[in-house]
What we know:
The protein is an alpha/beta fold and 409 residues long. It has a domain at 307-405: Four Helix Bundle (Hemerythrin (Met), subunit A). It has 13 helices and 14 strands. It has helices spanning 53-71, 87-96, 100-117, 129-145, 174-183, 224-235, 250-265, 297-302, 307-315, 327-344, 353-364, 369-385, 393-405, and strands at 20-23, 28-31, 37-42, 75-82, 125-128, 149-152, 155-158, 200-204, 220-222, 240-246, 271-277, 280-282, 285-286, 323-324. Strands 5-4-3-10-11 form a five-stranded parallel sheet, sandwiched between helices. Helix 6 crosses helix 7 (250-265), helix 11 (353-364) runs antiparallel to helix 12 and helix 11 packs parallel to helix 13 (393-405).
Amino acid sequence: MHAWPASEVPALPGKGRDLRIHDTSTDGLVTLDPGPVARIYVCGITPYDATHLGHAATYNAFDLVQRVWLDTKRQVHYVQNVTDVDDPLLERAQRDGIDWVALAEKETALFREDMTALRMLPPRHYIGAVEAIPGIVPLVERLRDSGAAYELEGDIYFSVESDPDFGKVSGLDAAAMRLLSAERGGDPDRVGKKNPLDPMLWMAAREGEPSWDGGSLGRGRPGWHIECVAIALDHLGMGFDVQGGGSDLAFPHHEMGASHAQALTGEFPMAKAYVHAGMVALHGEKMSKSKGNLVFVSTLRRAGVDPAAIRLALLAHHYRADWEWTDQVLEDALARLDRWRAAVSRPDGPSAEALVEEIREALANDLDAPTALVAVDRWAALQQEQGGTDEGAPGVVTRAVDALLGVAL
């Protein structure tokens, strides 16, 4: 599966700072010190609907991570999946009377268009669950053969008790885990499971649903968590730098994935930091496909909204914060974009060297984009009020805002 085209990232003078970021597993800030190649895995979409602003906010956060690393003169090995076979996709396809493969391809194509418009840097490897099945089957077989998984009526379940470090990603107790498991795709009440929290690794073929040859597992399709584990281990290996996604993935998805990988390899941890973005709400409730309270990136674009303004609207909120989308949020972003573009359109201006360092410092401090935006606001206001004599300043600001914030002026 192919990703989307990369926008050019301008090179800036000097060098950026190492990133300090909040790690869910320790509930504190950690300083990331990757090697020459920083490794990051971000969980992708289940393509049964268009990209909404909750998606966009999450991918914007991890786009900033990439930009901070690139500014430190590192390379970035970024991997993202597409869950192109799963219950929600199959249910939507049946509801709409469309082939599930066609639906997945259509929505994945629209996602690529949205990511391109928002100047999100693409992953080096963009892998669908279906194409990953040949690599998933042997992992499930290994877990089963080692005693870390077991069969129940043809389905294969992972035993969470096989990983002594289970629970260290989310830090939740068993009661909270059980509630969230029921809400987020698990089946804690299924009779016969060794532990209510045990997640499915391989679902035996169901009538009327797609299935694949699973070797000794029989025909079926993979569970949600093992999909990402197989892709991450194949392309990044254990101990990669950041596992990313929305805060609703901390449990069960990232918790289960970590345990799968740790049981397979005997190593800990799967990722050095588990980083989670906040949720975006509309009319007082988290944007959710199940609730239908969504604002789509493609709808805004079709209405003529500049993607740079959409990106500024996202950047105005700290990535870990839960916040609400309103008309005012967009109006503020459009006004800010106009001010910035007016400021850099002049032939000279106040020196921008200090501004570049302010943006770098803000982003290195747990991706504090709102503080970075305020710093650019100050420069733009000074340009408007007093001007300056530095002929290179507007160009420096334009390149810095593009390279570090992903906003094209």
